[in-house]
Structures are given as structure tokens and as C-alpha cells.
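Backbones bend. Shown next:

***
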Amino acid sequence: MIAEGCYPYVVGGVSSWIHSIIKLFPNIEFNLIAIIADRSISGKFAYELPDNLTEIHEVYLQDVDWVGNHRIRKNRVHLKKKEVEALRSLILGEEVDWITVFRIFNRKNVSVNNLLMGPEFLKITKDYYTLRFSDITFSDFLWTLRSIYLPLFFALKCMPPKADIYHCVSTGYAGIIGSKALTLYPNARLLVSEHGIYTREREEEIIKAKWVQGIYKSIWIEQFRKMSQCAYYFADLVTSLFQQAQSLQIELGCPKEKAIVTPNGIDTGRFESIPWKEPEDPYINVGAILRVTPIKDVKTLINAFYYAHKKQPRLKLWIMGPEDENPEYAADCHELVRVLQAKNIVFTGSIRTADYIGKMDMTILTSISEGQPLTILEGFAAKKPCIATNVGNCRGLIYGENDSYGDAGIVVSIMNISEISNAILKLANHPDLARQMGRNGYRRLMAKYRSVYMEETYRNIYKTLAKMGDVV
């Protein structure tokens, strides 16, 4: 299993999914290649690791090999003509010769520092600059290009352990390592599972980012697109969570015959004996189970709740989830509550979902990007209706896709405080409607999104790939 920036360091939907997959197959031995920013979070796990997860190999996208100055280490690797052309194809955005690129980084003596500071990279950068960007300062361009290729080169330098199947839980850097593994172990097979579409998510982040400016945004976006296309090319199968995501994968270069839809699933048994709301509880509880990060748009949620509470004082918002992933943003959210003098808003920190979900009257998710959120399904398991923004598969989960179970909540527009506030009030002031929507969600969950269905799907996928690789 190859994962970038999530399991087992960060609690969240993708991490929970990885944890569930590993636990669903106790007879399969899993190794994990975990891609993280640097060594500062090495070994700081947020999960108790399953017994069948036998090894974790960490890959750092920033590390000691890069010295960040003009000194080149001794014994510089001399690239052959074909290798220089492969490096050129990677940087100039032409049809990339990935096989040769992988071979460059398979050398034991290859140095990220020497490559980035070497004459070949400099010459290619000059050609790229002359071709497309000659109206900006070259020194800025050179160092920015080095910063763009630094994490990719560290991923390329990874030597994955031998396995029968490589399962990448995204394209991006994970997909690069999985693709490289096939050149080292020809009988292995590659599975890519995307929860969100990596290229689109990175594109959205880059467009909004303040740390990257002007033409450099387009270079970063192009880089992520090339990485995804690499994973799609080498993969034997590519999964997505819903039809629209599959269509995006195909649009971005995934061969149609490789793309399959595999919905999420949860263990509904976890929610059969949960604590429920006490009859004497005077509040109408709104539960937001999420990481307190910008992508979840908690600030819009707080503002929307503030206005809803003015009209319905019995409302109470529970913001339930970790705040350590982006402490600055979490602090801004607490400050917003203080400035608004908003009442009945509780930050719980990390929780065990089953301990709280039964006490809610509704769940809410105001994200600006999602795949197929497990928190919505967990709310359905407790027969709770959901208010969610129209991102990812939220509309499909709430309003259904070719089924007759009925609405299981309300879908609202991204960052629309008025719509979100009105949706909260609608469910708060019409409890019979809310309860019916909760029952609709439960029926949809039991019919389509149980973990037993996901287990059967992935068992078949693993068996199919094992046969393709002649695994006994």
C-alpha cells in the first residue's frame, strides 16, 4: 500500500479507508510506503496498526540529500545521452520517457542534490526558459524549478520493497513510486485508487495558494498532471468512488478499460449499540465530524450556524475532529467564534465517531472538496440526515443515484452561508422530515455502502491482479 500525506499519521476519510482495507483482509500481509513531508513526523502514528501491517517504509519529500546551495558533491553521476533526453522530456512536458527516468534513480549513487545542481538540469532549464518564460528573471525561474522537482526526485529515489501488488491510494507521488516498482519487479501488478481526483485537487490548491505566484502556478499544475498520467499508464486497474470521478479520470488520461467504480463502505455493526440522544436534551444538535482545515471550510460553517442560531436558539453545533493538521486555521476558527460572540458552538477535538453520532439530530459537511465522505455514511448508519455542499459524491449519497430511497438530507452550494443556514433551520424546525430523511439515508447505506460490499469488491480485485502476476 502506498499512501501520500495521510495514514497512519493523520486521522481522516482516506486514512480510515486504508485502515479499514487492511483490517478487512487479515490473511493478506500489507507493507506500507508512507509519503510524508519530512522526518519531523516520522513514527508519529495516529492509529493502532493492525497485526497484518508488518512494515512501514517512510519516504520524505524533503530530506538531507538536498543541501540547497551551489556546491556539488563529489562523484557526480554522469547521465548518458538517453537519460538526458528522458530528463528533458520530464521537465519540458513532452511525452515522458518514464522507464528511463526510473532507471536514472535506480542507481545506488544517484544524488538528488547533484542532479538538481548539475549541468544537465541547468541546460534543460535554460532551454525551457528560452522556449516559454524568457520575460522573467532566470535565477528565480531556475530555483523555482528546482523546488518543483525536489519532492518528485525524492519520490523517484525511493526503492520500494518487493511485493506482489502495489496499491496506490492516489496518483501523484504515490503513483510515481508504484509505477517505478513495476520496472523493478516485472511480475508485480499496480492498482490505483483515487478518493478525490488528485490532479484536480492539486490544481485547486495551486490556484488558491499564496506561496506560488504567476506562471509558476501553471508549471506546478502541469507537473501534477504528468504524474497522474504516469500512474494511469502503468496501472493495471484504476478505481474511483463514483461515476463522475471515473469520467474525470478518463478525461485526464486514464484508459477507459482500466477505470472501474468501487464505492466506499462502512461497518454498520459499529453503530448498532451506540449511545443515543437523551429525551431531556434541550438542544437540536448539529454534528460536524471533520478535520479543522481550510478544505473543510469550517469558517463558513461557523458563520452559517451563527445566523441559524439567531433564529433557532435551541441549535447547538458540535465541531468534532482534530485541530493539529493546520493549527493556524484552527486558531482562526476559534477566534471567529469569539469575535462573533457565537453561542452553542463546541470544539471537541478528536473523537470516536460512534460515541457522538447517535446524539446528533443532523450531520453537516461544508467542504470545498470531497470524494465520497465516510462521515456522511456514518451519519446514515445512525439514521441521521446530512447537510452537505455539492462536492464530490455528496449529491449522489444524499439524493441517490438511480434508487428510490428518497432524499437523505439537503445539498447546498459551496461557501453559501445563507443556503447552509436555511438548510440547518429547515431540518431543525421540521423534526419529522429530518427523521424521515435519516431513515432514507439508512436504507441507501444498507443497500449500497456496507463494508461487506467493499470487501467483496476488493477481494475480487486483489485475486484478479494476483492471477495476472502469476502470484501463488
About this structure: Residues 321 and 349 are 5 Å apart (CA to CA).
